[in-house]
Structure formats: C-alpha cells, structure tokens
Amino acid sequence: VSSKAYLNPGCHLLLRGRKPISKALLMSSPLYGNFCEGFAWSVATASYQIEGGWRADGKGLSIWDKFAHTPLKVGNDDNGDVACDSYHKINEDVDMLRRLKVNHYRFSISWPRILPDGTTRKINEAGLNYYHHLIDALLAVNIKPQVTLYHWDLPQALQDVGGWENDTIVKRFRDYADVVFSNLGEKVKFWITINEPYNVANIGHGYGTAAPGISFRPGTAPYIVAHNLIKAHAEAWHLYNDRYRAKQGGIVGITINSDWALPRNPYKQEDIDAARRVVEFQIGWFAHPVFNGDYNKVMKNRIRERSFAAGLPKSRLPEFTPEEVKRIKGTYDYFGFNHYTTVLLFNHMLPIIATYPGKPFTYVYLTILNFIKEEYGNPIIYITENGISERGNMNLNDIHRIHYYENYINQALKAYLLDGVDIRGYTAWTLMDNLEWATGFAEKFGLFYINRSDPSLPRIPKQSATHYATIVNCNGFPEPSHTPHDCQILEPEGNYKCHFNREDITLTLLPWPTYATFCDVTLLSINRCIM
Questions:
Q1: Which residues act catalytically here (predicted)?
Q2: Does the pLDDT of residue 15 top 50, yes or no?
Q3: pTM for this predicted structure
Q4: Which of 61, 276, 422, 471 is deepest in the core (most CB within 10 A)?
C-alpha cells in the first residue's frame, strides 16, 4: 500500500490504492498534496530587528534601544541602531519577498516610531508615512500585509512609569491601536495585537534576559505583566470589532508561542504531568483566557499551592473579575501560533532543550497543532512563526534549514489533511538575518544572508530561500516525478550581479534555483552577491 496521499482541486484527501492506509505509516512518510486555495504563505520580521533608523524622523526611544545600549546585555554589544536598515530599504525588502513567491508579509509597527512618548499627545507623521510606503509597495506586487502592533519595542517613556506592570498600559495600548487602525486599516486586513506575550512576561520580566531586563521579582512581575497583556489585547480586539470591523473588514488575533513538551520517561506519571504543566504554562497561560475566559486550572492550582507554601496570603497569579472574564473571552478571529522546537521534561527539573530540532522532533508539530484543535474548539490557525537558526561561519547552502522547513511544513500539511486542523496560513521566521534580540547578529534565522561587512547591507539568498519559494509556489508538496512540476520551476525575477575576488560577472535571466546554487560562497569563494 502506498504511503502517499494526494489532494484534488477541491481540497479533499485522496489516497492511492483500495486498502486503507495506516496513520502510523503516513506519519513516518512524506505526504504529497496541497493546502487549500488562498492559503496565506508568509515570512515574518519585527521592527526593532530590521528597521534601524533608531532616531530617524522623530522616532522615540524604545526599551530595546535602552537595553541594547546597556553594556553586556546583547551579544557582542550589538544593537539595532542600523540593523538591516529596512527603514531605508523598502524596495530591497519587497524584492526579497517577491523572490520567495509569498502572498503575505508579516511585519510589526514600532510603537515609538508612531507615538514617540507612547501616548497620543504627539503622532509622528513621518513614522506613519514609512508604514504607508511599505504597505503600498507590498500591495503593488500583490503581497498582503500582516501587521503586528506589538513585537516587544515598548516606548521607553512608558517603561519609565512602570511599563507593562502598570495597569494604565491597557488604555495606552488601546489608544495606540486606535491610531494604527484608523490610519492603516483601510489597507491592512490582518492584525496581530501582541507577539509572544509569554516572552514579554517571562523573559523580559522574569529571567530579565530581554528588554526591559527585569529579573528581581520573578515570582510576581511576570504574572502582573501577563495579566495586563491579556487585558490590553482584549481591549484592542473590542476596539476593532466595535469601531473598525464593519468598515475595514479585517481580522484580529493574538500570537501565542509554545514549545511542545515530551516526558523524558513516557511511562512515568510524574514526567507526563511535568510535560503537561509546561504546555499549560506556555500555550495555556494566554490561550485559555482568550478562548475560555480565565486561566487554566493547572496554572491556578500550581501557583496557589506554591504561594501558600511560601507563606503568602493569596496566590501570586492575579484574578480576573467576572466582568473581565466576559470581556476577554472570545477576543479572537483566529489562533496565531509560533513554534520552534520540543523540550524533554522530567519532574522537578528544568527542561532539557533539543539543541537541534530536526528529524527527531518534527513529528510533534502534528501533535501540538492537534492539541490546539482539541483544547480550543478547532479554531482557525495561522502559523505566524516557525524556523531554525545557525551560528558560526556563513554557509549559504543551509541544508539544515531546508530539512527543517520541509519536515515542519509537511507535518502541518498532515495536520490539515489527515486530522482536519483548520490551518489557513504558514509564516517562516525570518526573511533575513537580523538582530536576534539578546544574541545579537551572531544567531541567524534568515532565508537571506545580510553581508554586514558591506555598508550597503546586501541581501543574499540562501539555498533555503529557493526551497521555501518552491513549496510556496506549489502550495504544498507535489508528487515526485522524473521531471520537475511546473510549480517547481521558478521564473527569474531580473538580473543578478555577483562580485568575485577578481572580476565582476553579471548573471542575466538565470532561473533563481540556478542562481542560488551558483552564488554560493562555499563553492565559489564569492565576496558578496547583490540583487
């Protein structure tokens, strides 16, 4: 019996052969088929990581500007003052997107670029115009914007008065969202309120290894911050729903990140319980209030028990009032989901993280997508980040990333076709190597390499860019054959110039796969490639 599965144009699963195919066999083999027509293929970035222009045209300071300018906070003392200079390179960035064949682009708004002090006392028109120009350039080539309101760069002026620990931030965020919706909403139909609130709360205010770098109240600050993040998201959702949805016709959601957790010993109940706790403290922390109205029982019981054991009179986890529960529940149009890897857990110990999330763990992507389906009522899911990094010497032939994307996307296809998980879009992280937060420029997730030794910061495609573009162009995985499918032959997008050690050679009208292989520093000792 063949292990291959196929889709007809109506997106129904067709299985080869008359005998039923076991799911176990399908899980261990590639699945050939397509996502449905209109699937949102995307790639993501974040404002602080790529824009640069940190004081350009009236932009205010963000918490990441301050954090990155504090010695020893970011690897190699890197910062985002210039980053990828996307503030001045809209055309170059859009050209990369065209080469990837994506039909969507996820980027974030810099709150202090639009509201320098975080409030509506002054709206920076130059900052708004940058985003107008970017969105117009995207729409001109039929790429739809997916816009994140908050991807971690809080105005420093708001941090100075308590930031996310001060509950006045809820109204400040609503006011900020109002400015963005009213100015950009006619062009933007896909909104993300907050990216990865878990990291904002726990990494920024618990471990302190991300801005604003708070680590001296790890048992309380993350829960206060998370409480306000959830309420701020809900207020932005209601604002759009009440004032803008009928006229603008967009959708709004929050993006939640989570690893999947496996028990180190699958036959030991303590390890099984520990793995479940990790998932409930990541996905459940934010998804349960948004989808069900309140924190999950695992979190509530665990934190209450430990609070009482420490002699506290009440739980460190704040409580929502009945009115807040009603206000928060149902504030979603989809489930935005970021996922990178899996952790192995055993009781009373820190998780052991898989350092190379390739073949051993790609299969759990199917599991975690099914968990979301079952736990939260089969919501529409947009995968809003997924990717893998590398460090060290650059090799444009990034086989590990090709392997990662092919396997993870194929697992998403299995979840969609075999289990009915309602996946509507997939987003690769990230478009280009950028400032990867506290690790600086050393850690690289990009489909494009940025040559930082060249002041012009040229964007150079890695082999994975070609591979991802092919998957996008095919809307999935066509059945293998002796000759490439039409969708696997990528049309050239223009001229390419490669600068070699001794001479300049212009490559004209080469199909991009050929170009991507040809311009490979591991093969030809190229100094840089410019598109």
A1: 385
A2: no
A3: 0.89
A4: 471
